[in-house]
Amino acid sequence: MKNRNKITLLISSYLAISIALLFLVLSCVLYFRVMSILEATLEIYDILLSQPQLELREAVNMDDYEGVVREITAYNAGVVAQTDDTPCISADGTDICQALARGELICASNFVPMGTRLYVQYYGTCTVHDRMNERYNDRVDVAFSADQIDEALQFGKRNSMVKILE
Question: How many CB atoms lie within 10 A of CB 126?
Fold first, then answer.
């Protein structure tokens, strides 16, 4: 009877230890899964925070216009590394730096004549005063001033609706 009680006690102890170890392993697995989910959530949150949060410069109901989705890029007028050796002078002779300082929105494009006004979603209504490299025949490049490097980077490269206004 004594041996039986010892065996029962050993088995009970073994089961208790096994259950405790199983609980510990499951807790660790759950902890690491929760941590990986939290890590992934934080990465997504960081990505979302780094995305452009641009305000519309001009309220235009795009339902009123027929437009085409085009690739839009941003550049900084007045920055030689992003333009040519005359960074403020556009292809049609306009001083883009002064125009931007006056609050005008300027863009470059190859698919419309100079002076054409375009509505570019998320940028506003701009006037084409410049050209792009000939390999970009369907793209629009929107101008930011030389002191708006962060804004141009935030705008980045995106696909947006473009409407030819005039």
Answer: 25
Write down the pLDDT at residue 79: 84
- For a pLDDT cut of 90, what percent of the chain falls above it? 31
Please give the Cα distance from 93 to 160 (Å, whole number). 27
Taking residues 73-100, report their average pLDDT: 87
* Residue whose structure tokens are 């452009």: 52
Q: CATH assignment of 62-164?
A: 2.40.40.10
CA distance 126 to 104: 7
134 compared with 29, residue with greater pLDDT: 134
8 Å CB contact between 78 and 95: no
**For residue 2, what is the enclosing H or E element?**
helix 2-50
pLDDT computed for residue 54 by the predictor? 45
Domain ranges of the chain: 1-51, 62-164
Residue 162, classified by CB atoms within 10 Å of its CB into exposed (0-12), middle (13-18) or buried (19+), is buried
Q: How many whole angstroms separate alpha carbon 43 and alpha carbon 40?
A: 5
Q: pTM (2 decimals)?
A: 0.60
